[in-house]
Amino acid sequence: MSLEDLNRLRQGVYRLAGAGFSPPDNDLIAGVGGAIPVLDALGLFDYAFAPAIIEAVDALTASDIDSLGVAYVNLFEAGVGGAVCSPYESARLGDSRTGEVAQIQADLKRTYLRYGLRVEEGSAGMIDHVATEMNVMAALCDLGTERKSSGRNIDRVALNQLEFLSDHLLKWVPQFTAKVQAADRHRFYTALAEAVHSFLEHERQLVPLMVDALAGANS
Amino acid sequence: MTTILFCTEEEALPDIEVGDAVLIGVEDLCELPRQMLSLVADDEKELVLAIHGDRLQLGSLQAAARRLGFDPMSLGLLDLRSISEEDGLLRALAATRARLSRFPGSLPEQVKLLPPDRSTRRGLLSIGTPTYVASPAIEDEICVAGDGCRVCVSGCPAGALSWDGGAVINDKTSCVACGICVTSCPTGAVVNPIVTPDAIEAEISAAIGYGSDPIGIRYRCREAAIGSEHEWHQVEVPCTGMLTVGWLLAPLVLGAKEVDAVPCSAGGCSLSNDDRLMATMDDASTVLFEVGLDDTASPYIDPPSDLMDGSELFGHGSTIGAIQLLSTDAPEARASLQAADVGTITIESEVCTACEMCANVCPTDALQSRLEDECVIIDFDPRSCVACTQCVSACPEIESNAITMTRSFDLVDWASGRREIRRESTPSCEVCGQPIAPAAMLSRIESILGEDDKGTLALIGRRCINCRGR
Fold first, then answer.
1. Partners of residue B335 on adjacent β-strands
2. What DSSP state is assigned to residue B126?
3. Which of A87, B110, B181, B305 has the greatest number of beta carbons closer than 10 A?
């Protein structure tokens, strides 16, 4: 398998996770079934996280929009004193009384700009949402694929992926997915949390290997 | 149902009876494992593959297993190079299926991605079909790192484990999945799903229980060159450095004729665990000698049924149980050992301040403290001590050797059970009557403060911490 295909596969899984953690709609349920053949063609079953991804997609395909919507609100939006499973990095890692929440969000905004990603007007409230962070990694994977295909160096993109993974996703998403698994009563969000957990555990090992491989190839 | 796929590239499909399983011959299964996609039924529960390990495309096999709905770590891989006769094949099949039946399932944290081949530029720039091995993960609910335990950290030959703020961190990229942390953990909190105590016990019991001829059990490092020998059943382990004295003795308890261990190469263990293995094997020999058993003779002990869940014979602290079971004819046996996970704790009353730190950090509760008759009492149960030395490390008077641990067993001592090893009086507070602190601790404070601060000294000697401000 080429690095481009691997990047495309990872991008697809990040996009899937981003869509799964976004407010659900009918398009999501209708469209997700087509994801598996695409990921399969990119070698999904070669990777340890494949069964968890399949399980999540199966669970989503079997879901109805009403129960999914209720589950989403119950888990990620409602709750006395905040959501049961807040999907925001700043809410999980920061203390609002000391200004850490704003600090985390401001740091993230700078990080996105440094990666060459534009923060859309009106999206400030979503800047550290789990779906946004998944989509940021998807964009970095996409950037890597694009550069590799055009023969350009992708060391910097790989390093950015490693940085974002270590400094953000792995710092809070594993605890977040564990909380979702404990609190969820809807099969889909349990399966999605397990899939993201499995995928990020794999990323924890894979991305440093990719960075090493690229450094070795260039030396 | 179980499907057994047999690679027929080098030998013909044997004409054997495999009970309720289905035996299918597959030409060149090892190099083209995707063939199994059309051979295994959708509702199959277990999959055993009789393969040639030196030719196996493990990554492709694991991918095919995933596509079939199997956890790749659950596959029973039986290396045909380790089998010489039909009888040996049937025994190995029985043992492999028994081991499979105890597979607990693997978690994402228990799967390690092996680095790609970096010997070629192609290897550097393409990821190839990834290959995974099972690796240990720590069960936070059982781990006592929060009490300061770092046994796994100090034993890790790869430096993959670290202790940070009361938790053990496993750097998976450095982990070599050798399993030493699994068997050295005093509480059984480190779990590798393919080498659980239950699974090992099941495999060895099934191998020994197959047929009427006694056999030996040979633990073989997964990296070791494989050869076949009649009358031996080979049990693959991640590294022979993970073996404990208990693991070496347990097969004898179960009826094995003899026990052996083969490290990864004649040149020695690639992880430098040779010394550890040699010391463990020496200890096992010493135990057998002291309890009156030759190290090649099986005692054919029928272990009590409540010991047969695997966790007692192969779990943490199992060495103590194995020695007890083997020593029924030598009730006074005792010996000093080098590396065994059995220990005896001694406290030097002259320098111990009875601060109870040793009891607080003991992960197996071999050391316990209590307050009775206006004294702090520390009890020790040698049958629970796994020689982890956490008590020694935590002792504030470590430079004075206030507490020492010696690796040894003494059946008379074990028979006497829990006993008091330290007693220190505790003066009572003149205000509330509660204990202030052990007298030895107050003396120690006095020796530190000296003559310079007699007021403070007088106060802390008369009042407890809650009443000093009154």
1. B409
2. B
3. B181
Question: A130-172 pLDDT, tens per residue?
Answer: 999 999 999 999 998 888 888 888 889 999 999 999 999 999 9
CB atoms within 10 A of CB B129: 17
Question: pLDDT value at position B235?
Answer: 95
Give yes or no: residues B85 and B66 share one domain. Answer: yes
Least CB–CB distance from B173: residue in A47, A52, A205: A205
The total number of residues written for chain B in this structure: 470
Whole-complex ipTM: 0.91
Do B454 and B403 share a structural domain?
no
- Nearest CB to A3 within list B64, B115, B125: B125
State how far Cα A79 lies from the chain centre.
24
Residue B139 contacts A where some CB pair is shorter than 8 Å:
no
| Angle, CA B100 vertex, CA B95 and CA B106 arms, to 5° | 145
| B142: in domain | no
pLDDT of B293 above 60 = yes
Instruction: Return phi, psi of residue B306, to 5°.
Output: -75, -5
The CA angle A37-A43-A44, to the nearest 5 degrees, is 70
Query: Considering only alpha carbons, which residue of chain B is nearest residue A55?
Result: B69
Residues 6+ apart with CB under 8 A from B324: B383, B411, B414
Statement to judge: residues B45 and B4 lie in one domain: yes
Check residue B80 and give left, alpha or beta (phi > 0: left; psi -120 to 50: alpha).
alpha
Nearest to A45 among B66, B128, B172 (CB): B66
Q: What Å distances lie between residue B78 and B81, B210, B222, CA to CA?
A: 9, 16, 12
B432 touches chain A (CB under 8 A): no
- Name which of B71, B126, B130 is nearest A3 (Cβ-Cβ): B126
In this predicted model, what pLDDT tens digit does every residue of B261-271 receive, in sequence order? 988 876 667 77
Q: Are residues B63 and B162 in the same domain?
A: no
The answer as to whether B140 is a domain residue is no
Are residues B251 and B302 located together in one domain of the fold?
Answer: yes
Residues paired with B113 in a beta bridge:
B132
* Residues in chain B closer than 8 A to A206 (CB atoms): 113
> Do the Cβ atoms of A205 and B124 come within 8 Å?
no
Do B256 and B352 have their domain in common? no
- A213/B112 touch (CB, cutoff 8 Å), yes or no: no
Pairs across A and B, CB distance < 8 A: 65
**Among candidate residues B199, B180, B190, B246, the one with its CA nearest the CA of residue B100:** B199
On whether any CB of chain A is under 8 Å from the CB of B63, the answer is yes
Displacement of CA B182 from its chain's centroid (Å):
4
One domain for residues B187 and B263: yes
Measured distance CA(B111)–CA(B171) in Å, rounded: 12
| A53, closest residue in chain B (CA to CA) | B66
Q: How many domains does chain B have?
A: 4
Q: Is residue B149 part of a domain?
A: no
The distance between the two most distant Cα atoms of chain B, rounded to a whole number of Å, is 91
Angstrom distance (rounded) from CA B410 to CA B117: 51
Model pTM score = 0.89
Q: Do A204 and B132 touch (CB under 8 A)?
A: no
Residues B270 and B316 in one domain: yes
| Residue B115 touches chain A, beta carbons under 8 Å | yes
Distances (CA, A) of B120 to A52, A218, B126, B128: 32, 13, 10, 12
B19 touches chain A (CB under 8 A): no
Within a domain: residue B138?
no
- Residue range B183-218, pLDDT digits in tens: 999 999 999 999 999 999 999 999 999 988 889 999
Structural domain including B262 reads 156-331
- What is the domain class of A3-218 according to CATH? mainly alpha
Locate A80 and state its tokens.
Answer: 């006395």
Residue B397 has pLDDT above 70, yes or no: yes
